[in-house]
Design goal:
It comes from Cohnella phaseoli. By secondary structure, the chain is α/β, with parallel strands linked by helices. The protein has 26 helices and 17 strands.
């Protein structure tokens, strides 16, 4: 590995070695090669372009989609002793001009910009006069129309290549991308034979779970009570639902904020900043909140409503446990969520091809919500990894309920779908099997089918859930249409011939929120000395408030925890703690060292 890169890592970031994938990406960039890095949230994507930026002549441009993300990144870089700045719409015209002059004068190594800035001819004229060795594109999935968050403004990025001579290295990064999205990123950003590095999608520190049919308000209240000392995000699908959940949580007496596009930019900025600074414990938000959020100590993410696809879900859920400590990701599923997401697709201005793709992605999300397999495995397989292992911590892996033989019920379901010519949806199939007195059933003469009423002993809700589970297990599939029909798959043959049995676990009697604490998946990592750890956190908060920074910019929780374990007595011992670089020791190290000595 490049020794200069290792020296920079130790000096500015306080670490002795790179994480998986970082070395290959950094070496490729320093060799002048384009790169595409797919690294899960918390895997250290930003270091992959920040280290090369320090070692290359000139200023590196970083294209980032959110103002708050730019500020967090620049604050962290400046705290580490790295000269960086941003130009975006939050600045006045005079401040923008001053920063552009400072950039032109070579005062910065990294310049963060929004893609919309590239539409400014004045900005592009400045860029033509600069030495730009590297362009880093963060959240690169936004450039793909097949991704979950397509932003047309990202299409302007490639125009930069026409303005800069010699052509800079292009480096694209994102946390999640299917093979289709990866290829689209390469094509749309004009990456030249990029070094592709995917470090794996599994997040071993996250415990995933899906809760179906729960009283959502009751679940949220009990969960918050059980995790009262932890920071969390609750996602909702609409502004109205955000307002409703926010009012409910606020009524519990918990410090909480709300975030959605209906609020003013100032309100959103104030709420996010309060959350970053640990003044708010919980944020209730739509998916407008959180892309690239740098807050490291989010311990849980609850989805009050099912997102539109697995890419969006994993991006949002991945905001838990960025520091590597345990985190929990809970999806509260209800059938109404599917209706809501279909409405969004139907109301969109996308063409028919894009809508079909969106319906397919939504079906994948519903399938995930009903699978009995390891939830981590289901996610990594969705992204193309076939050789993963069961995580052992998700809701399905820790589910101790006994499996029930549902082969007979499955055969009746398969037979009914066949008799209905594979042309109808889950709900009507369930009604036929239950023998419902329904006008549509009589219209199609389905009351004359042999399958009619064969599962009348089952309530409609568990029967619908069983059909969805059979979809998730690969026996059935849903068509990629606005009104998906359920169809038979090849594994059905073995069941109908009596060569294979079908098992499903019954729904629990114990509320899932009560079980989550027992398996410990949502708890923080153990601390050697809780009293000292809390004192260090309090000192960090005081320093952060005095400097107008989020506490994690000073030191991450993991660094404070290692201080509690190592109990350093000198500058040398303090600087050996992971996360304590030279610049941070000069700024903050002595105060923390003195507090530890006083405690001793």
């Amino acid at each position: 590995m490049n020794q200069a890169a290792l020296d920079a890592l130790k000096t500015y970031y306080g670490y002795d070695r790179f994480r998986s994938g970082q070395e290959r990406l950094i070496e490729a960039i320093l060799d002048g090669r384009d790169v595409l890095g797919i690294m899960p949230t918390g895997a250290g994507k930003s270091i992959c372009y920040q280290i090369p930026a320090l070692l290359l002549d000139g200023v590196t441009l970083v294209v980032s989609p959110l103002i708050s993300l730019m500020k967090d990144q620049v604050d962290s870089l400046n705290a580490a002793g790295i000269e960086a700045t941003y130009i975006n719409s939050s600045l006045s015209a005079s401040e923008t001009s001053k920063r552009m002059r400072d950039v032109a004068a070579g005062h910065y190594k990294l310049l963060y910009i929004a893609p919309e800035r590239l539409e400014s001819e004045q900005f592009r004229a400045m860029i033509r006069r600069l030495e730009v060795p590297l362009i880093a594109v963060d959240e690169a999935h936004c450039v793909s129309q097949w991704g979950h968050d397509f932003r047309p403004s990202y299409m302007t990025i490639v125009r930069l290549l026409q303005d800069i001579e010699p052509r800079p290295v292009m480096a694209a990064f994102t946390a999640t991308a299917t093979d289709v999205v990866k290829d689209d990123i390469v094509e749309r950003l004009k990456l030249r034979d990029p070094a592709r590095v995917t470090t794996g999608y599994a997040r071993s520190n996250l415990a995933m779970s899906v809760v179906r049919g729960a009283d959502k308000r009751d679940f949220v209240e009990r969960y918050i009570r059980e995790h009262s000392d932890q920071a969390g995000i609750i996602y909702a699908s609409t502004r109205r639902e955000v307002e409703s959940v926010y009012s409910f949580v606020r009524g519990l007496g918990v410090p909480v904020g709300k975030y959605h596009a209906g609020l003013s930019e100032e309100e959103r900025a104030e709420t996010q900043e309060a959350f970053q600074r640990d003044d708010l414990q919980i944020i209730v938000a739509t998916n407008a909140f959180g892309m690239g959020i740098d807050k490291s100590n989010v311990r849980y993410v609850i989805h009050n409503n099912m997102p539109k696809n697995l890419e969006a879900y994993y991006q949002e859920a991945g905001r838990a446990g960025r520091d590597g400590d345990p985190g929990e990701c809970v999806l509260l599923f209800s059938a109404q969520d599917v209706v809501t997401q279909k409405f969004f697709i139907e109301q969109s201005e996308a063409d028919e091809e894009r809508k079909r793709n969106d319906y397919r992605l939504l079906n994948d999300m519903v399938q995930y919500s009903h699978t009995g397999d390891c939830l981590q495995l289901a996610i990594v397989r969705y992204f193309g990894e076939e050789n993963g292992q069961a995580c052992g911590t998700c809701g399905n892996c820790t589910d101790t309920r006994e499996s029930k033989d549902v082969t007979e019920e499955a055969k009746f379901i398969f037979a009914c779908i066949s008799e209905m010519k594979q042309r109808f949806g889950v709900t009507l199939t369930a009604k036929v099997l239950r023998g419902a007195n329904d006008a549509k059933i009589k219209q199609f003469n389905f009351d004359r089918l042999r399958s009619y009423g064969r599962l009348k002993h089952m309530a409609e809700k568990p029967l619908v859930q069983l059909i969805h589970a059979l979809v998730a297990d690969g026996y059935l599939r849903m068509s990629d249409t606005a009104y998906p029909v359920v169809q038979l798959m090849e594994p059905v043959l073995a069941v109908m011939r009596g060569e294979e049995l079908v098992y499903q676990k019954v729904e629990p009697d114990t509320p899932p929120a009560s079980r989550s604490r027992s398996r410990g998946s949502g708890s923080s990592a153990p601390v050697a000395n809780v009293e000292l750890f809390n004192a260090l956190r309090q000192l960090r908060k005081q320093i952060a408030d005095s400097e107008g920074l989020p506490p994690f910019v000073i030191f991450h929780d993991a660094t404070l925890r290692e201080m509690c374990e190592a109990m350093p007595e000198s500058e040398r011992e303090m600087r050996s703690v992971k996360g304590v670089g030279a610049a941070k020791y000069e700024k903050y190290g002595l105060a923390f060292l003195q507090l530890i000595q006083e405690y001793r």
